[in-house]
Recover the amino acids of this structure.
């Protein structure tokens, strides 16, 4: 097994048992929604299963009878607030590196497939062409460093190769705090929205990501795989598109550069993930993030109609 490679494993059959940790997060919720018709899915929130606590990992995996264990565990738990990771590096290390290491240890001992989410922030951002799975990582902040360490611990523990690491970027949904909900909240409060023009990446709809992971599981994919929607854009372009799509004033967006914002953590200037491997395995091309956004705007409008 080489860093950044992909290989084949046993496809996950319909009806297989999947447990999701970090199920209250935006990706966790999307996986629960997306997979419940095909798999037997169970979600765990942090109060039930804290991935940093060895006793929780023992209780749910090692001490559970083989008959009741899942076929696959999907780790959607992480400390994702990039600036908070910078100011609380020990917490970030616990959630993003130590926790995945514990899960990996228990999964390897019990033969459970571990699916883990990782990030474009493992890359430095100095490259100018899309990042492949085996591009050497070089994170520029604590979040990226701890997420990379999480990947390393999985590789160290799971010598059988029974893992799938899906790296993604700029995840958005109508649930939990994320860039989309932040832009909408500020616009509805008629506040200006400072957004950077010098950060380029690919927004990814949480539902599209869940669907993509499901397709990879159906095909028995293992190793590292990148998934994101296309095409690349700046945060400024993304924010303007969000406002236009939700019928809010686009002029609230104020273009700024990364150095002008009081961020604690650096962000990569360029972090476009290459999705050729995903395309080759699934035969699917990720759709434009604007299409997913338009669907969310329709859904949000419908929910509001029901409410009134
Ligand atoms: N958001 C992005 O833009 C983005 C981009 C690239 C990759 N990713 C990766 O995608 C994955 C999912 O991210 P997301 O956007 O869904 O994040 P999110 O909305 O912030 O959700 C994170 C989840 O992890 C839970 N959690 C945190 N620490 C935990 C612990 N010690 N034990 C158990 N649960 C814990 C949180 O629980 P509470 O509800 O209790 O806080 C929450 O449910 C993460 O691995 C992240 O690194 C995200």
């Amino acid at each position: 097994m080489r860093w950044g490679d992909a290989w084949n494993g046993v496809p996950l059959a319909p009806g297989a048992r999947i447990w999701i940790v970090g199920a209250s997060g935006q990706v966790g919720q999307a996986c629960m929604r997306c997979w419940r018709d095909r798999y037997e899915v169970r979600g765990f929130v942090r109060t039930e299963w804290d991935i940093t606590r060895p006793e929780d990992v023992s209780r749910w995996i090692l001490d559970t009878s083989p008959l009741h264990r899942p076929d696959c565990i999907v780790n959607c738990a992480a400390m994702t607030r990039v600036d908070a990771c910078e100011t609380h590096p020990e917490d970030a290390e616990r959630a993003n590196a130590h926790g995945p290491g514990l899960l990996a240890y228990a999964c390897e001992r019990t033969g459970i497939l571990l699916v883990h989410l990782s990030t474009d922030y493992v890359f430095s951002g100095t490259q100018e062409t899309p990042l492949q799975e085996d591009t050497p990582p070089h994170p520029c902040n604590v979040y990226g460093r701890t997420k990379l360490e999480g990947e390393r611990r999985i590789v160290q523990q799971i010598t059988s190769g029974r893992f799938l690491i899906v790296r993604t970027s700029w995840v958005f949904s109508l649930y939990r705090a994320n860039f989309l909900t932040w832009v909408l909240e500020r616009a509805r409060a008629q506040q200006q929205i400072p957004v950077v023009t010098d950060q380029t990446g690919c927004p990814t709809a949480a539902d599209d990501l869940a669907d993509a992971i499901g397709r990879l599981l159906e095909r028995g994919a293992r190793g590292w795989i990148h998934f994101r929607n296309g095409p690349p854009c700046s945060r400024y372009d993304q924010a303007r598109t969000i406002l236009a799509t939700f019928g809010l004033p686009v002029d609230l967006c104020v273009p700024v550069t990364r150095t002008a914002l009081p961020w604690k953590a650096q962000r990569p200037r360029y972090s476009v993930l290459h999705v050729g491997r995903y395309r080759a395995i699934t035969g699917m091309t990720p759709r434009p993030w604007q299409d997913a956004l338009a669907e969310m705007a329709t859904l949000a409008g419908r929910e509001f109609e029901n409410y009134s």
